């Protein structure tokens, strides 16, 4: 699969819109990514061009993004880049850039955030499947077996 994976750092530009669809929860919001550069003439940082992306999130990521993100917050988005060119009113050239998000998080270089794990749906109580205690004490045979001295296997020799 040849997909273009991107990591975009920017600000939430629109409030996330959450929808329950037939294929599961979905959320979208616009992300503003502005480049900054050092202007030698001014002796200061200057904002460059701003790119806008529509970020799409699905399933649990959609629910968590809708509950966690607000306009203006700095975020980091990782996902698949989808660029589309469409005709609008007879003119070609309308281009949209979407990111099908795999991960979204607050940019901790610019502030703090408190993580809160979401609860899982209730499931039926599963039987205890913990690992049995296979360890035996030195000189003790496992239950139901005779005490046989154990030998280390000889290393295999490949020819």
CATH fourth-tier homologous superfamily of the domain at 5-106:
Nucleic acid-binding proteins
**Could you name the CATH class of the domain at 5-106?**
Mainly Beta
**Which stretches are low in confidence, meaning pLDDT under 50 for 5 or more residues running?**
none
Q: Order of strands side by side in the largest beta sheet?
A: 1-3-4-6-5
Q: Could you please describe the fold and organization of this structure?
A:
- The protein is mainly beta and 159 residues long.
- It has a domain at 5-106: Beta Barrel (OB fold (Dihydrolipoamide Acetyltransferase, E2P)), CATH 2.40.50.140.
- It is built from one helix and six strands, in the order ββββαββ.
- It has one helix at residues 59-68, and strands spanning 5-12, 17-21, 24-39, 44-58, 74-88, 91-106.
- Strands 1-3-4-6-5 form a five-stranded mixed beta barrel.
- The radius of gyration is 27 Å and the shape is extended.
- The two termini are 40 Å apart.
- 12% of the residues are buried.
């Amino acid at each position: 699969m040849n997909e273009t994976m991107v990591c975009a750092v920017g600000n939430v530009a629109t409030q996330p819109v959450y929808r329950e669809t037939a294929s599961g929860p979905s959320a979208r919001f616009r992300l503003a990514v502005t480049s900054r550069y050092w202007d030698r003439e001014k002796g200061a940082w200057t904002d460059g061009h701003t790119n806008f992306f529509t970020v799409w999130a699905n399933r649990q990521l959609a629910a968590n993004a809708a509950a966690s993100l607000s306009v203006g917050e700095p975020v980091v988005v990782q996902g698949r880049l989808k660029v589309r060119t469409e005709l609008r009113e007879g003119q070609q050239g309308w281009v949209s850039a979407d990111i099908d998000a795999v991960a979204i998080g607050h940019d901790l270089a610019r502030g703090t955030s408190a993580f809160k794990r979401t609860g899982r749906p209730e499931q039926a109580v599963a039987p205890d499947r913990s690992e049995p205690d296979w360890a035996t004490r030195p000189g003790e045979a496992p239950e139901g077996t005779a005490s046989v001295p154990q030998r280390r296997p000889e290393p295999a020799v490949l020819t």
